[in-house]
User: What shape does this take?
Amino acid sequence: MLAILHNPRYLGYQVWGRARKTDVLVDPANVQLGTRPLLIDNPSEDWIWSEDCAQPALVDRETWNKAQAIRSQCSVTAEGHTYLLSGLIRCAHCGKRLKAA
Assistant: This one.
């Protein structure tokens, strides 16, 4: 679902340069093990957008921007995991916010 919320293709545009591939050592202490590929997200300011729509938009720009803002405010990253609902879910009994442990 995260990929859908973050995909600008739903605006109707073609976008390039959203991520880059790099190779990282499997174990830096043992270079004989070789490398593994790793995709790294580029900042959205560095994306290259097509000038014209490539297909019909499924959502308007304002709604997509709101979804990006909500996503960036609510995400909590812990040890490589992103918790999209962190801070949004509350206990029905006491009303306390639930958070990632």
In short: Residues 60-101 form one domain. Strands lie at 15-16, 19-25, 35-41, 48-49, 76-78, 81-83.
